[in-house]
Write a structure and sequence with these properties.
Shape: globular
Largest sheet: 5 strands, antiparallel
Strand order of the largest sheet: 1-2-3-4-5
Helix content: 10-25%
Strand content: 35-45%
Radius of gyration: 12 Å
Number of strands: 5
Order of helices and strands: EHEEEE
Distance between the termini: 23 Å
Amino acid sequence: MQLGTRWTSGDEPPKSVPAALRGEIEAVDATIPADQLGQPRPRWTLTWLEGRPIAELDTGIIVSLDENGEAFARNDPEDGFG
């Protein structure tokens, strides 16, 4: 696994985030409600596993590519929320 980068949800992803993931990341970010109490937004972590990009949100949502190179979001089954 190769570590990539981190950024706050709702912010522009760094240039190192592949274009193929960006639309799905933006769709996930759009579902996160604004916190009225001023709590920080969750952060994304980009890693590479076997040469494939994986973006994981602190909440356990993962955006990755399927075998056809299409981005999809899923919940991490080990995070307790899946």
